[in-house]
Design brief:
- The complex is a heterodimer of chains A (about 425) and B (about 260).
- Chain A has 17 helices and two strands.
- Chain A is mainly α.
- Chain A has two domains: about 20-85 and about 95-125, no CATH class; about 125-435, ABC transporter involved in vitamin B12 uptake, BtuC (Orthogonal Bundle).
- Chain A is globular, with a radius of gyration of 28 Å.
- Chain B has two domains: about 1-100 and about 175-255, 3-Layer(aba) Sandwich (Rossmann fold); about 110-175, no CATH class.
- In chain B, strands 6-7-8-3-9-10 form a six-stranded mixed beta sheet, with helices on both faces.
- In chain B, helix 3 (about 115-125) packs parallel to helix 6.
- The chains are: A mainly alpha (about 425), B alpha/beta (about 260).
- At the A-B interface, helix 12 and helix 13 of A face helix 2, strand 6 and helix 3 of B.
- Chain A: It comes from Cobetia crustatorum.
Chain lengths: ~425, ~260
């Protein structure tokens, strides 16, 4: 009897089927920890030292290795408890984790938009100089994000060289000013036209390409523009850039303490004391107006047949062709329109900085603008705005991490793609609803 | 079945009178198409008269879809000529062909799944004025009352049959005189296939000429005035729909004995 009991007692243990390796936490935890030590040790734990022509490998101090061991231990523990954590997460998962508050939709939408614009208009007068400056920078990125959103988010064309158009816009104003004496307001439309032309010229041959190929060509285009600006020293000043680009004027009134010959500065004209913050506030308001115009234009375009055609093309190229639409023409329109917004942003950027050089237009700028679009949720205007704010404000708020900025940037992207791959505010397409009243 | 039919009324209507390519609604003259080095169509000639339903049947990979797409100009035929309403359209850009009174419902429907029924239809009349577009939408909705019920629904959320109706409706938006249909029965339940074929007949009654490419040979041949059988890029048989239904070779190969 006892034997039988004993047998019965052991049988459940034998009945447990062999488990796959990821179910054996001890083994995978040890492996992960060793891997951490090997990888981390070879990257951080040793240092190459060159004395003369010989290179020696030197072990780092106790402190570094202490940290490495701690990291390995952390990885070990994490792997050990991961199954439990995952079980717990699966059990406590709620169907919807994050929804936007209702203010972004519904009937009161217009009221909210008006309130937001009002708040943005008052903001510079209630705030300090550096905050307004940062807000202006954010607005430039919003404009760039909105422009690229047309190309990537709406038309589905992966453009990795968007910064090239930004550079064309900035240099158009800078060059027109330094050679021909154009003012900001005269150059602004020309900068838009010039970038649109560049967009058209680039788009014409490359838009037959798809996906990866298009991405590579546009990446090359961005680099070509930068290298050209860097090397065409006679025209662009090369790496020295172009300095003393005048700020925008307010109906020909300048925001300097003393105006140029034959001109009156803003503060004298209105009989108020000189304050350098007027200039900052004016730039901010100008950027705000440019962003609002951009938003409005794209909003209208989306509701026009051409906006729908962009989306249709992103969805199904063959169907579009079967309906007699010309894919190349439609792509070209998205590419050209998207580019021209970068041109406006570029001209404004040149005016705000007063100095531009090819340094400002490296690939990382393209990557940041693309990150804004992806983070915002491809195609969504509100998403782009929120993402642009996050992308410019977060690095400022995390100033002490300055060296790790790119690390944080990468981490944020990874986390976003894991938890919210559709972006902050996924595109909700405009469509008419029947009144069910 | 492999014998090559050269003279069997390739450009002839069932009545036996010879149709010059200029007089037919649609005519293909010795059309040959390649995908790179691979030959997909070999010297194909056929004609569709005004007001007819003509069907093209054949097995998988016989070149049916290629033939249809060659009419639209994509891929471009290597040699031979395509005539539409007495005008040669060989080599005309696809977009221009598709705007000239000819419309295609592509294989696999290819509706815009993220767009509503209304928006899908609107894309079908992309080059129309707003008024024309609205009138065409109304016309399509009259033809497909089901689409009216689904007007604000996204294309991708509808059933296969509804999606096929939407695809046909979208193609009708440009008021085509000739409608090319590529396997409208693909992946649909028999009862739904019946509805779709009823609609095709109804369209013909309203004056639209139909060129129907089908694998569902029985259904296609029963509504067709005439039919062609395509094998390995060749037209191997051409006859009236009834005659093809009764043809022993066709029965064996396509109708299950």
């Amino acid at each position: 009897m006892a034997q039988i009991l004993k047998k019965a007692g052991t049988s459940p243990a034998e009945a447990i089927p062999p488990q796959p390796s990821y179910r054996r936490p001890w083994w995978s935890a040890t492996a992960a920890a060793v891997l951490t030590l090997v990888l981390g040790g070879s990257v951080l734990g040793v240092q190459l030292e060159s004395t003369g022509i010989t290179t020696t490998v030197r072990l780092m101090g106790m402190e570094t290795w202490g940290w490495l061991l701690a990291a390995a231990l952390a990885v070990f523990l994490h792997q050990l408890i991961r199954p439990q954590v995952e079980d717990w997460r699966a059990r406590t998962r709620k169907p919807s984790r994050f929804t936007l508050p209702k203010i972004f939709s519904g009937q009161k939408r217009q009221l909210w938009i008006m309130l937001a614009i009002g708040a943005l208009l008052i903001f510079p007068f209630m705030s300090n100089r550096s905050a307004v400056d940062l807000a202006t920078l954010t607005l430039i990125y919003i404009m760039l994000g909105l422009g690229l959103n047309v190309v990537v988010g709406l038309a589905g064309l992966l453009d990795l060289g968007y910064v090239g158009f930004y550079a064309v816009g900035a240099y158009t104003y800078a060059l027109l000013n330094s050679y021909l004496g154009f003012s900001f307001w005269e150059a602004l439309p020309l900068a838009g036209l010039m970038t649109a032309l560049f967009g058209y010229l680039l788009g014409f041959p490359v838009l037959r390409l798809r996906g990866d190929y298009l991405a590579i060509v546009t990446l090359g285009f961005g680099e070509i523009i930068r290298i050209l600006l860097n090397n065409w020293t006679e025209l662009t000043g090369g790496p020295n850039g172009i300095a003393r680009i005048p700020k925008p004027t307010f109906f020909d009134l300048e925001f300097t303490r003393k105006a140029q010959e034959g001109n009156v500065p803003f503060h004298e004209y209105f009989g108020i004391a000189y304050d350098p913050s007027y200039k900052i506030i004016y730039l901010y308001l100008l950027a705000l107006i440019l962003v609002l115009i951009t938003l409005f234009v794209i909003y209208r375009l989306l509701r026009m047949p051409i906006g729908r055609a962009w989306e249709a093309l992103r969805e199904d190229d063959i169907a579009c062709r079967s309906l007699g639409m010309n894919p190349t023409g439609i792509k070209l329109s998205a590419f050209t329109i998207g580019a021209s917004f970068a041109g406006f942003a570029g001209a404004f950027f040149a005016a705000r900085q007063g100095f531009i050089s090819p340094e400002s237009f490296t690939f990382i700028e393209s990557a940041i603008i693309l990150a804004i679009v992806v983070l915002g949720g491809m195609g969504s205007q509100l998403g782009v705005i929120l993402a642009a704010i996050a992308m410019t404000l977060l690095p400022e708020l995390a100033r002490e991490f300055n060296e790790y900025r790119m690390l944080l940037f990468g981490l944020m992207m990874v986390l976003m793609m894991v938890w919210r791959p559709q972006g902050l505010v996924p595109l909700k397409r405009p469509h008419m609803e029947l009144d069910r009243g | 079945m492999t014998e090559h039919v050269e003279d069997v009324g390739i450009l002839a209507s069932c009545a036996g009178e010879v149709l010059a390519p200029q007089d037919a609604m649609l005519a293909l003259e010795n059309l040959t198409t390649h995908y790179g080095p691979v030959q997909a169509l070999n010297d194909v000639s056929l004609a569709v008269g005004k007001g007819e339903i003509v069907t093209l049947i054949g097995a998988n990979g016989a070149g049916k879809t290629t033939l249809l797409m060659s009419i639209c100009g994509d891929p471009r035929p290597t040699s031979g000529r395509v005539w539409f309403e007495g005008e040669e359209i060989t080599g005309t850009p696809t977009a221009r062909v598709m705007r000239g009174g000819l419309s295609v419902v592509p294989e696999g429907r290819r509706i815009f799944t993220g767009m509503t029924v209304e928006e899908n239809l609107a894309m079908g009349g992309y080059y129309q004025t707003r008024e024309e577009n609205e009138r065409s939408i109304e016309h399509v909705l009259d033809l497909f009352p089901r689409l009216r019920e689904r007007f604000n629904q996204r294309g991708g959320t509808m059933s296969g049959g509804e999606q096929q109706m939407l695809a046909i409706g979208r193609a009708l938006m440009s008021r085509p005189r000739l409608l090319l249909l590529d396997e409208p029965s693909l992946g649909l339940a028999p009862i739904v296939i019946g509805q779709i074929f009823d609609i095709v007949e109804q369209l013909r009654e309203q004056g639209t000429t139909i060129f129907l490419v089908e694998q569902n040979a029985h259904r296609a041949l029963s509504i067709a005035d005439r039919g062609y059988v395509l094998e390995h890029g060749h037209v191997v048989l051409a006859d009236s729909g009834k005659a093809l239904l009764a043809n022993d070779d066709v029965r064996r190969a396509y109708l299950g004995g």
